[in-house]
Design a protein that fits this description.
Helices cover 40% and strands 32% of the residues. With 173 residues, the chain is an alpha+beta fold. It starts with a helix and ends with a helix.
């Protein structure tokens, strides 16, 4: 549904605008209590903010770790899907979370891909047909203290290769 809606809206809006407001209006992302505040035109940079409020406050009075994780969870995958286009399959594979200090106010996080990273990903997928990459990002407070760090493992494959892999797997069952 989201993909079809995005394709329709691209007739009228920039992809970055659709990405930003699509996330912020999406019921499942709204429940994280985070908001996308910045999305670059090329989608290589996304910034989120997460404010302490009654919906995400834990027993100790800080931002619930699950809210932090949920706020960061879908960004890299969907960001990469949009950047790479329809010839690739991208899935979240794993996440490692390290909570370093309590989030007591507003925290922010940046999700970055360089142009060189995208070229490397495309070259590696062309060579190997499927790869895993690990992207790290941190949530920081207004004094740039690291609140939490997340290491996301993403699976990226050539779409035709992935379809053949699925067919092969289904025929074995």
């Amino acid at each position: 549904m989201y993909r079809v809606l995005t394709q329709f809206l691209q007739r009228f809006f920039k992809t970055s605008t659709i990405y930003k407001y699509g996330f912020n209006w999406s019921p499942m992302y709204r429940r994280t209590t985070a908001r996308l505040t910045t999305v670059s035109d090329d989608l290589h940079k996304v910034v989120i903010t997460l404010k302490l409020n009654w919906k995400n406050r834990n027993y100790a009075g800080s931002i619930f770790g699950g809210s932090m994780l949920a706020a960061t969870d879908p960004i890299y995958m969907i960001q990469l899907i949009q950047i790479l286009g329809d010839d690739y399959v991208v899935w979240d594979k794993a996440v490692e979370a390290q909570y370093r200090r309590p989030g007591k106010g507003t925290i922010t996080g940046e999700f970055l891909f360089s142009a060189e990273e995208i070229v490397t990903i495309k070259n590696d997928v062309a060579k190997s047909k499927e790869i895993d990459i690990v992207k790290s990002m941190s949530l920081v407070d207004d004094k740039q203290n690291i609140i939490a760090t997340f290491n996301k493992t993403l699976y990226i494959a050539d779409k035709d290769f992935y379809k053949q892999k699925l067919k092969k797997r289904q025929s074995q069952t």
